[in-house]
User: Fold this.
Amino acid sequence: MSDPYDEDVFDFVSFDFETLDDLDDSGEYLDVDHPATDAEGGSADAPVRDHHEADEGSSQDDSVSRKLRMLVLTDEMAAACEQALGYHFQDRRKLEHSLTHSSIARTRLDSNERLEFLGDAIMGAIVCEHLYHTYSELPEGELTRIKSAVVSRHTCAKVSKKMDLGQFLLLGKGLSVRERIPSSILAAAFEAIVAGVFLDGGYDAAKQFVMRSLLDEIERVARSAHAQNFKSMLQQMAQKIFSQTPVYRMLDEKGPDHSKCFQISAAVGSRVFPAAWGPSKKEAEQNAARNALEEILESNLDLLD
Assistant:
């Protein structure tokens, strides 16, 4: 099987340019000419364009060269990033790949999106294993609740900010000039880093990195899991984002009268969130509110900064 980091497949630094003469010693953004490659002004391998500049040049003549800005991860930046992560990469191309956002990547396959997918799964497995062995007294529902909070994008963004990973991300100019990097990008970068560490050093290295990064969050969430009133939290968030109050709908009930289980879903306006079961209507509503909170946090992460 071919190496996914073979230079023919992933040549981040050159981006298929013949030389690096257009870069200065500091690795700052520089403008370089990149002519269109076909009659339509680009090809399937053309860089993913930032949404801030997507339509600006669409009406211009196809022969006009487009300008791209490129940031190279210098050795100095890579070393500083590794220090922040507490992990030294054997293959720094994996670190570069983990930090490469789609706005600057040559194609989406060259961005960190696939690593983000892998890292999310690895992080989830590591956290689940830790919870299973550490909290043997907790039932499945409580473990799931803690795990969901710990591996959420909200937590990943929080940890990413704590490490100050934003300064190392490789972004297109529409994002790089912004004062604040969106939390959704920071969260995705942390997940990609987890995958990068896994591919570079194996499961044990990834486990050490994840536990070092998330242990405080795991313990905090575990301590407060029983004390949280998810219905109250959902009401506050629903009013803040949607200016509406959540309602709860009972969908099903099972079991004998002395041991019933109830399935309830939360809804805000016309939006219905994933249902949840509970041994009482009150607990089922709390679980449904938690499901709604997680989905709202995922889809409105940047609005909650």
Observations:
- Residues 1-70 have pLDDT under 50 and may be disordered.
